[in-house]
Amino acid sequence: GAGVSQSPRYKVAKRGQDVALRCDPISGHVSLFWYQQALGQGPEFLTYFQNEAQLDKSGLPSDRFFAERPEGSVSTLKIQRTQQEDSAVYLCASSLDLNQPQHFGDGTRLSIL
Amino acid sequence: GENVEQHPSTLSVQEGDSAVIKCTYSDSASNYFPWYKQELGKRPQLIIDIRSNVGEKKDQRIAVTLNKTAKHFSLHITETQPEDSAVYFCAATSTGAGSYQLTFGKGTKLSVIP
Predict the structure, then answer these.
(1) pLDDT higher than threshold 70 for residue B97
(2) For B82, which DSSP code?
(3) What is the phi/psi pair of residue A112, to 5°?
(4) How far apart, in Å, do the first and last CA atoms of chain A sit?
(5) Over 70: is that where the pLDDT of A1 sits?
(6) DSSP A9
(7) Given A35, A42, A103, which is nearest B107 (Cβ)?
(8) Which B-chain residues 14-33 have CB contacts (< 8 A) with chain A?
(9) Inter-chain contact A42–B89, Cβ cutoff 8 Å?
(10) Would you list the DSSP string of A38-61?
(11) Which phi-psi region, left, alpha or beta, contains residue A90 (left: φ > 0; alpha: ψ -120 to 50)?
(12) How far is B83 from B36, CA to CA, in rounded Å?
């Protein structure tokens, strides 16, 4: 497809379960970013990759959050032992390079019960 | 780190009128300022951006101005239409300084009344 693709679009999990969120960037985009968007707020940075290298993970809220991009294309954001405060929309963005405009996917809406 | 303040939080205008949204930033090293439009349940869509080496940029009905000295930038929408109704986010980052993540404002909900 032409845009950033994220799956699933919606995810409901019970507290304590592990979840995995997938991001498929625009073809040829080497930079990939993850953001968390709480209801009524702007996106907040989590982590970013340049190809397969995770260059900054300073925004990850705890060690329960883990992201990877092993082949420099698709990325997965994993949350272990989910808690209610993890409920949010998780947005992925990609760009041609680090200093180029970021283009977002539709996000995954995560609800923790 | 960077802090971006955005005002107003809500804005209602009559169709055909202009709308202005203002943002301020704290980090003088910031040099790239994009604006995103987000409709309910949809992705943030990049509508215009500006880099610190220019003071103004225009694309049809949308324009952005940047004042580096005062550290503020604004989005101007002229001849508003109902389809302009959405939440608008400003953002800032300092590309080339090893910190490429966007810092967003809290958003402005724009309602264009037909």
Answers:
(1) no
(2) G
(3) -110, 120
(4) 33
(5) no
(6) S
(7) A42
(8) 32
(9) yes
(10) -TTS--EEEEEEETTEEEE-TT--
(11) beta
(12) 15
